[in-house]
TrEMBL record:
Position of the signal peptide: none
Keyword Amino-acid biosynthesis annotated: no
Gene3D superfamilies: P-loop containing nucleotide triphosphate hydrolases
Alphabetical UniProt keywords: ATP-binding, Nucleotide-binding, Transport
Residues spanning the membrane: none
This protein's record includes keyword Nucleotide-binding: yes
Name of this chain's protein: ABC transporter ATP-binding protein
ABC transporter domain boundaries: 5-230
Single GO molecular function: ATP binding
Pfam families named in the record: ABC_tran
Source organism superkingdom: Bacteria
């Protein structure tokens, strides 16, 4: 099986509004896939369709080679799912809750559950209703990871977690990837996706507008460049240099700042006509790329490569 998830022309409408519009996407077996978008973009709608919690208006989806509608019971045994609004019985203690959920999955060794609780700093003797939002989220993470599923589907998994536990979560994802599990993770937190994802899809208003590796998304994005000169230079020299975007000089005329698209070769050659005393380029973070796709014009539907 080359793909853990295959989605073709998937659409979901809610009355007159559209939650998902013609989504086509493959998630490869064994990869960590980051699914990015703000609230309301269609991330949770996609996940609910994959799990047959809601039904599509049109289009198809297969998960682990199975049809979510007709093979739901068999499929759920092989998936670890964390909902964006994880809720369980508040009267239970953490240990009782996790044992119950483990039993539903056919049994999970108690040491495995205890080890995950310990790793996340979760008190197994506490009642669910006494827990903070962050600690309730830890319960959700334990139940998703504890049976070592083939596929983890995680909807905003770090919601409410403090930074130290967020780091532990990323380590759990990395461990899962090393063991060959597939992780489909929706988020609007760019840094956590950038840290672990093999590929990223960016969703805008129910439409996929970018799909690539983090490295290739960066390579196609505009970087920032700053060049320091020993003496003032004329801005006119750099306005038509290939690759420079919106160049401008500081008041002294000795520092040139601009965006950089593609190779810096022409820029370096133009700058070399003067005495260069400093040159720095800054790679864009994933959040900059994300916000650029939400800024307007360049957002266009994409399909899986």
């Amino acid at each position: 099986m080359n793909n853990a998830i295959e989605i073709r022309d998937l659409t979901k409408t809610y009355g007159t509004s559209r939650g998902l519009s013609g989504l086509t996407l493959d998630v490869r077996a064994g990869e960590v896939f980051g699914y990015l978008g703000p609230n309301g973009a269609g991330k949770s709608t996609t996940i609910r369709l994959l799990l047959d919690l809601i039904r599509p208006t049109s289009g198809t989806a297969t998960v682990l080679g199975l049809d979510p509608r007709h093979d739901g019971v068999a499929l759920r045994r092989r998936i670890g799912y964390l909902a964006g609004d994880f809720v369980v019985d508040g009267g239970q203690r953490v240990r009782e809750c996790l044992r119950f959920l483990a039993h539903l999955r056919g049994g999970v060794p108690q040491p495995r559950i205890d080890a995950l609780c310990d790793r996340l700093g979760l008190d197994p003797t506490a009642t669910i209703k006494s827990l903070s939002k962050g600690n309730r989220q830890k319960v959700g993470l334990v139940q998703a990871f504890m049976h070592t599923p083939e596929l983890l589907i995680l909807d905003e998994p770090t919601s409410g977690l403090d930074p130290l536990v967020q780091q532990t979560f990323l380590e759990l994802v990395a461990d899962a990837a090393r063991s060959g599990q597939t992780v489909f993770m929706s988020s609007h937190i760019m840094d956590e996706v950038e840290a672990v994802a093999d590929r990223v899809g960016i969703l805008r208003d129910g439409t996929l507008v970018a799909l690539d590796t983090v490295a290739d998304l960066r390579a196609s994005a505009i970087r920032r460049i700053e060049i320091g000169f020993a003496d003032p230079v004329a801005l006119a020299e750099f306005r038509t240099v290939p690759g420079l975007v919106e160049p401008h000089l500081d008041p002294s005329g000795t520092i040139l700042r601009a965006g950089l698209s593609g190779t810096p070769d022409a820029v370096v050659k133009a700058a070399a006509r003067h005495t260069v005393i400093a040159l720095t380029t800054t790679e864009p973070h994933l959040d900059e790329i994300f916000h650029r796709h939400y800024a307007g014009a360049e957002a266009a539907p994409r399909t899986a490569a």
